[in-house]
Amino acid sequence: MDGAEGTGRLEFRSRPCAGSGRVCPWRRDADLTAFSDEDMRRLIAASDGDTRGGAFSFEVAERMFEGRRMACHLDQPGTAHAMRLCAGWLAVVGRHHARARMSMLCGQLPAEALYPDTSAWPDLVDDLEELLQRREAQLAALDGADEVAAREGFAG
Predict the structure, then answer these.
(1) What are the helix (H) ranges across the chain?
(2) CB neighbours of 156 closer than 8 A, spacing ≥ 6?
(3) Which of 49, 57, 65, 135 could potentially form a cystine with 32 if both were Cys, beta carbons 3.0 to 4.6 Å apart?
(4) pTM value?
(5) Mean pLDDT in the chain?
(6) Which residues contact 52 (CB under 8 A, 6 or more apart)?
């Protein structure tokens, strides 16, 4: 969805990315080995304002205004739609993220951005921890396959 120029509304993707190449990392079917350690650090930093399971405090209030939000990995500076918020991040983290919720309350994001109808969406991970665990498992499986290939003489 495109935010109107100069209105203070934030732009966001209406559903998680699909197609060839890297799909949205919040999807359960994503190949997370295609994402770098730096990509993971960005996801962690953007999820810092997640207040799930925690009490509201001065520290949380500070993060409301300082917390990062996650742009789609396909929307980078210089692209046609630079820096639209990631639909997967909004659906998984956004509803628990202090700054994203504040953006909704201030009218910068519609409620549908944080509480989308995901019935026609691919399955998403439950939280950042699951995403990171899935990536570790995929990397371990990849390392194991590389070791087998090397033992069998298929290493390039």
Answers:
(1) 37-46, 58-66, 87-92, 98-105, 111-114, 128-151
(2) none
(3) 135
(4) 0.77
(5) 80
(6) 96, 127
